[in-house]
Design goal:
Blueprint lengths: L1 H27 L6 H10 L5 H21 L4 H44 L2 E5 L4 E4 L1 H7 L3 H5 L15 H17 L3 E8 L5 E12 L5 E10 L8 H4 L26 H14 L3 E8 L5 E8 L10 H5 L15 H14 L2 E4 L5 E4 L1 H7 L3 H5 L21 H17 L3 E8 L5 E12 L5 E10 L1 H23 L3 E6 L4 E4 L1 H7 L20 H17 L3 E8 L5 E12 L5 E10 L1 H23 L3 E5 L5 E4 L1 H7 L13 H9 L5 H14 L3 E8 L5 E12 L5 E10 L1 H56 L5 H30 L10 H18 L3 E5 L11 H18 L8 E9 L2 E7 L26 H11 L4 E5 L5 E8 L5
Parallel strand pairs: 23-24
Antiparallel strand pairs: 1-2, 1-5, 3-4, 4-5, 6-7, 8-9, 8-12, 10-11, 11-12, 13-14, 13-17, 15-16, 16-17, 18-19, 18-22, 20-21, 21-22, 24-25, 25-27, 26-27
Helix pairs in contact: 1-2, 2-4, 3-4, 22-23, 24-25, 25-26
Amino acid sequence: MLMADLSHRRLGLAVTACLVGLAVSWLTLSPLGLIGPVVAAFLYARGRVVRPVYVMLAAGLGGALLAAVLDAGMREAALAWAAFCALSLSLGPIFSGRMAERLDADAVRAAKSVERLTGIAWATDAAGAFLYVTPSVLAFLGLTLEDFNAPLANKEFGWKRAIHPDDYEVAAALWRRCLQTGEHYSVDSRMLRPTGGYGWTRSTGQPLRDGNGVITGWYGTVIDTEIAPPRNELAADDPGVSAADMTASDTLPPMAEVHPHDRATVEQARARAFFHGIPQVSSFRKLQPDGSYQWVEFRVEPKYGTSVAVDPAVARQDERWTTASELGETGEAVRAALAIENLYGGAWAMDASGQFTYATPTAQTSIAMALEDLNLLLDGKPFIEGGRQGWQRGVHPDDSEEAAATLRHALKTGEHWNFEYRVLRANGAYVWHRAAARPTRDGQGRITGWYGVTVDIDAYKRTEAALRERERQLQQLIDTVPALIWSTSADGRPIYVNKPFIEVTGATLEEMIGPDGLPSLSVIHPDDREAARRAIRHSFTTGEPYSQRYRQARADGSYRWTDTRAQPLRDEAGTILRWYGVSTDIHDMVTTQEALSESERFLRQLVETLPAMIDCADPKGEPIFRSQRLREFLGYDLEALDGSGKSRLAGTLDAGIHPDEVADVKERYAHALATGEPYARRHRLRRFDGEYRWVETRAAPMRDAEGAIVQWNVVCLDIDGEVRAQEKLLAAQESLARASQAASLAELSASIAHEVNQPLSAILSSSDACRRWLMTEPPNLERAQKTLERIIISANSASDVVKRVRALFKRAEDKRDCVTLGRVIVETGDLLAEEAARRDIRFDIDSDDIVLQVPFDRVQIQQVLINLMRNGMDAMEAVAGDKLLGVRVRKADGMMRIEVSDRGAGIEFPDKIFEPFFSTKEQGMGMGLAICRSIVEAHGGQLWAETNEPRGTTFIFTLPAEAEA
C-alpha cells in the first residue's frame, strides 16, 4: 500500500511535468521546454522503457549537429535541438538513478523492519541483485554484497557458498522462477551455521510492486526450522477441538458455505498458505444444513491454482475485522506490520500507549476479538498505567499478568518485547504463541507506535515438550543402563559422563579432563595406561573407532577389566562433531575366559600327553580334530586329505586300515554312525613308515541336552606290543601246559606206581608167608588160607587203582558207591603207615562209622586224603618234638566235614596254595591241591585251609551226606 501511494503521486507529478513542458515549448517556440516531459519519463519509466528514450535522444543529438553543419539557415534551430538532446542525455541518468535508489531504498527499509523482529533479513532489486543483508550474517560468512552478487561458474549465484550443495539447485531454480513470475519465495534448505555445520532453515521473500504492479524490489528473511512440527499436530493433538469442529479439516468448503463476513478471511488464509508454503489455520462460520452458521476451524494447506487478492481483504472498511479508522502517528507502524504480514501473517500494530491500531484479520477471527475488543479497558484504567486490557481475556490466566507486565515495561522503556504465552482460540482451546514487537520512532527518537508479529508455536511447544520428555527418558535410560557412557568434543575434550560412570569410578567430569584437554587416564591401571593413551590419540587423530580393553579403577580402589568403545558422530560432510563412548564391565567375562583358556590349555595338554591317539569327528563321522600323537603316527595332517576327491573319513580308512580288515571296519563304523552305538574294534593301522601295527579303536558319541549327537570322540591305542606279547604268552602257556602235563603224568605215574606197589608188596609178602605155611610139616592150611585171602584183597586193590587210571585217561564216567567213609580213612592210614613210621609220625584218626547217602568215588576221595595227609607229613619233616597228624570226621548241616591237621610251620600264602602251578615245595609242581579241590568240588563239596594255634595247618573239605537210621 505504501508503494502504491508513492507510485500514484509520482505518476501525477510526471503527467503535470509533461503538460507544463509542452506549454512552455509551444509558447517559446523552443525545444528546451520539452526537458520537463523527458525528466518525468526518466523519473517514472524504468528498465526497457528508458532505453528507447536514450536512443531517440542520442539520434536527435547527432542529427541536429549534422544539420547545423550542413545547412547554415537551420543552424540556430539545429543547435537549439542539439542543446536540448545533450541536456536531456545528461539529466536522464541523474534522475533515473535517484529514482532507482529511492525504489531500492523501499526494499531495504522493508527488510530492516523485518530484521528488527527476526534478526536476519535481506533485500534485492527487481533483478535479484542484493541491496542489503544483515551485517552480522555477512561478517560470519566472510562475504560482502559484491560477493553475493558476483556470479560464479555456470552463472551460479554468489550466495551458493552459504547453502548446502545438495540444496542449492532447488533453491536457485525456485529463486529464478520467482524473479520471472513474481511469486512469493519460500524454500527449505540447509544453511551454513557458525559452528561450521549446516542447519535447516526457511528462506522467505516477498516482492515490492509499484502502482502498476511492476516489481520494484524484494525483501525477505531467514528463520531457523531445525525442529519441524508435524503437519497435523495442530489439529490432531488439540484437546479443545471437537470432532464436529474439525470435520473435513483439510478440505475447505465451497465459499457459498462460508459466512459472507468471513469469506475475506478464508481467502486471505488460502492465499497466504499458497504464497508462504506454510499451512494456515483459519476460523470462520460455516453454513449448516438447518440454515444456521457454526464456528469451525480448518487447516488450509498450500495448493496451486489459488488466485486471490490479499490487500482487499485487509482494506475493506465494511467488515468487522480491520485496522483503526485513524492511524495518525502509528501509520509507519501499520505499514511495517503490513510488510511483515506479507511474510509471516499474524502481524499487528499499536500506538505508543498500547492501543491496537491494526491486527491481521485471520488473527482477529481466530481469537474472536476485533480491535475494540482487544483495546477494551476492563477496569477503566489505561493499560500503560497498570490497567487490564481486553486482549488479556484471550490469554491463559497463568500467562496473562506476566505478558501484560512485560509489554507494559516495553511500552515505557522502548525495549524490544518478546514473549511466549497461551492464547484462547474461538474453539475454546489454548494454543501457544510467540509474540515479538519493535517500536517506531520519529525524527527526535520519540516512540510513535509499535509493530509486531504473533506466530503460532503450539506445535513447536508440543514438539519441544516431547523432546524434553524423550530427553528425560533418554537420560533416565543412560543413567540406568549397566554401562559407563561418556562423550567428548571433536578434539577429544570430555564433555559428559553419565551417573553410573561417576558412581562406579568415583571420578567426576572435571576430574576426567586431563592437563592436555584429553580424557584423563587416572582411572586406568598404570600397566594399561600407555596402550590406552596410544589408542585414544590414534582415534582422535585419524577418526577411526576406538576400542580398548584395560583394567579400570573402581570407587573402592579395586580394578576391574573393562571394554571401552567409542564412535565419532559426523555431519553430512563427514566432519566429526562429537565422540560417543561406552565402557562395559567385562571383568567376570575376562576371568571366565581366562579360566576357560587355562582349562582348554590343560585339556589340550592332557590330550597331547595321554599315551593314546585322539580323534574327533562331526555327527557324520568326518574328522575335525586329531591329536599331535595321531598326526605323527599317520605321518600327515588332517588338512592333507582335502582335495583328494574323497571325504576325510574315507581317505583315512582307505589309506590307513589293513586291506584284510578295511571292509569290516567300514561296515561296523557305518553301523555305529547310523545307530549311535559305541564302536570298538582291534585292527591293524598303517604307520608313517609303512609298517602295520595293531591298534584298538574305540568311539563314543557326545550328545547335547536333547540327546542329539554333536560329535564323535575316538581314542586309538597302540597295542602292537601287547598283541605280540600275548602271542608269546600263548606260546609259552602252550609249552608250559605240555611240560605240566608231562610232569603231572610223571608225578601221577609215580603216585600210581606207589599205590600199586603197596598192594603188590602185600601180595608178595603174603605169598611168601603162604608158601612158608604150606611147607611146614604138617602144612598149616588154616593160616595159609587167611594169607591167601589177604593176597586176594591186595590184588583187588591194585586192580581198582589200575581201573581208575584207565577210566581217567578214557574220560569214563566216575563210579561212585555208598562206602563207609571211616573205612576209607583207615585204609588210607594203613597205606601211609609204613611211610609215617619211617618219619616218626603217628596218626590220630577219629571217625564215626557213618554210611554216606550220596555216592562218591572211593579211589578219588582216597587220593585226596593221601595228598592232604602226605602234605601234612611233609610239613612236619623239619619240626622237632611230637609229630602228630590228626584226621577227624564229623557231620554238620547235612555235610560230612573231614579235617586233616598237622603241627608243621604253617602256610605263608593260604589264598594261593590252591592255584595251579603254585607250590611251597622246592620240587613240587603246584598241582596237587588244585586237583584235590577239583575232585572235592566235583563231588559237591568245598576245600580250604585254616591256620592252627600256635602252629600248624588244618585242611578241611566237605562232602554231602545223609546218615541212615
